[in-house]
Amino acid sequence: TILNCSCCELRKYIFPYFLVTGPEFRNIRVGVGHRLDAFSSGVLVLGVGNGNKTLNDLYRTRVTRDYTLEGEFGTATHDFTHSGGVMERSTYDHITQDKLERVLAMLEGANQKALLMYSNVDMRSQEAYEMAVQGLLGPEGKSAPILTGLRCIHFQPPNFILEVQCLNETQKYLRKLVHEIGLELRSTAVCKGIRRTRDGLFTLQDALTHHYWTAADITQAIRQYHSSKKHRKRSQSPAKKPALKTSEDVTAAQQNKANEEAAVGTIKKLVAETSS
User: Fold this and answer.
1) Which of 86, 145, 157, 206 has its CA 20 to 30 A from that of 225?
2) Active site residues
């Protein structure tokens, strides 16, 4: 009957069947964690489906993020990037790695004071000490950007690379940071690149490049994350130490052993009498 139908009529017969059309498409909500702008790269956390609830928890926690910043001395631009309009050029021959590290130490110390100021905890309390030991000390809610770590990992003038750990930052703030470092060194500097290497628990090893943005690869990445999360929980749980035996426990064990031997002896005697 179907073979004699027209094309429009054929659609009425075939399209409603699941085996022909496949599963019905469903909208899947995808949320974005701490964002990256168009001039930055690295780890960008996405929440799929129920994972959006976890993103809210990620926002509320005091997790830090790691970046590598590529800088270049000698130029200042209107937007602090190497592709922006040049505002000024300056010399940089007087800059040494020792001078750069002193400026970084000064900035890190100033940000440590800001971290304590924004923390809603009495710094003289035991709670503040325990939070500091566990690395949980941080601002309550939104605050100004705070650097928790800052060091130079490559220095070859005019180029240098910084490793940064921070809270509540934006990529624009990080580019401006490179600019201010140049000014502190009586020179100028622009940011050539920003790469986020860690966002909380997520690192570059967990990331998928856009070539692997497929349903199968994303599902596999989610499974690997949950598996590693369970493994971390097991490794962090304290091992149970065997309890020490008291003299009463030893006496009870000896008594049980004696009772078992007596019972075995009785059974053997009964067996011998029956066989005889």
Assistant:
1) 145
2) 37
Residue carrying the six token digits 């941080």: 138
Contact 93, 224 (CB under 8 A): no
* Tens-level pLDDT at each residue, the chain (276 residues): 444 544 555 455 555 555 555 565 567 788 888 899 999 999 999 888 888 888 887 777 778 999 999 999 999 999 999 999 999 999 999 999 999 999 999 999 999 888 878 877 776 777 777 776 666 667 766 788 999 999 999 999 999 999 999 999 999 999 999 999 999 999 999 999 999 999 988 999 889 988 888 888 988 888 887 787 777 667 766 555 544 545 555 555 555 555 445 444 444 444 344 444
110's tokens: 């100033």
- For residue 219, report the phi and psi dihedrals to the nearest 5 degrees: -60, -40
Nearest in space to 94 (alpha carbons), one of 103, 85, 81: 103
In angstroms, what CA-CA distances link 121 with 94, 118, 140, 244?
43, 9, 9, 41
CB burial readout 200-221, b (16+ within 10 A) else e: bebeeeebeeeeeeeeeeeeee
* Rounded-to-integer distance, Cα 208 and Cα 43, Å: 9
Half-sphere exposure of 24 (CA within 13 A, CB side): 4
Residue 142 sits at the vertex; the CA angle it makes with 62 and 175, to the nearest 5 degrees, is 90
pTM assigned to the model: 0.73
